[in-house]
Design a protein that fits this description.
This protein is α/β, with parallel strands linked by helices and 268 residues long. It has five helices and eleven strands.
């Protein structure tokens, strides 16, 4: 079977039930601590309204929703169902993060795993415009791309094993860059699923964005943001966990990248 013959995005549709098994919400506690630290530094206080674009199953948000009044947007109905079950108090909307307009502004706008699904400059620029359109004066925007063009090293292979009751999943992920001249990479996913005496194999394919740090900074600035890169040590990663933090420039200012006051700070 050729790579291109494998259907795309099944994990966010008919295979969505596997998401809590291979990425259980408790595994996001360390990441969420980093996000919470940035929010507090930006004076986003308890009870403030926050919006997550591309909320998915809401796993990262589940660690923040008790402290903030959260709203989530996602294009996948299956992901919204998972998020609703995990985060019953969160307001959810089905929509495209590149174009959705809720007609409200929030103290913070978050872009977690969904940042990696922006594969063209136009996709990225439009999503950053969405974030800016929903951010209140003095608010904070946080994005977390999985990779930068400078740091991605492919092909890369990862494997893991997961279980939930009598369900066992062997997960294999292969990431490669078929065309180094474009702004995307391809991730092939294999799920070997065993339940009781039955074992089956499911395949999935995802196309993810790959932009340079300079690309992110330039497009942040185009949307009106000053950008700071925050890096945190995080257990299980062989590199710092990086968050891109944006604040809207005041009228008359020229936005751009603001050097981080520290290249690495410990997560609380």
């Amino acid at each position: 079977m050729r790579f291109e013959d494998i259907p795309q995005g099944r994990l966010y549709a008919e295979l969505a039930w596997l998401m809590p098994v291979i990425t259980p919400p408790q595994d996001y506690a360390g990441e969420a601590a980093c996000w919470r630290a940035v929010l507090r530094e930006g004076r986003v206080g308890a009870g403030a309204e926050v919006l997550e674009l591309g909320v998915g199953g809401g796993h990262n948000l589940s660690h923040l929703a008790a402290e903030f009044r959260a709203t989530g947007v996602d294009l996948s109905a299956s992901m919204l169902d998972l998020c609703r079950a995990l985060n019953p108090g969160v307001e959810l909307h089905r929509g495209d993060m590149r174009s959705v307009r809720l007609g409200r502004r929030f103290a913070a706008v978050l872009l977690h795993d969904a940042a990696s699904y922006l594969t063209t400059e136009d996709d990225l620029a439009r999503t950053l415009e969405t974030a800016a359109a929903h951010l209140a004066p003095g608010g904070v925007f946080i994005a977390a791309p999985d990779h930068f063009a400078e740091t991605f090293r492919g092909p890369a292979l990862e494997t893991s094993r997961h279980s939930q009751g009598d369900l066992r999943v062997q997960y294999v992920e292969y990431a490669h860059d078929p065309d180094p001249e474009d702004t995307s990479i391809e991730v092939l996913m294999t799920f070997i699923v065993t339940k009781g005496r039955e074992t089956r194999v499911e395949l999935d394919r995802h196309v993810l964005g790959l932009f340079s740090r300079a690309d992110w900074a330039r497009l942040f600035a185009r949307a009106g943001f000053r950008m700071e890169t925050r890096a945190f040590p995080l257990a299980g990663l062989d590199r710092p966990y990086e968050l891109l933090v944006g604040t809207l420039g005041a009228p008359g200012e020229t936005p751009g990248e603001t050097p981080s006051p520290s290249t690495s700070r410990a997560a609380p």
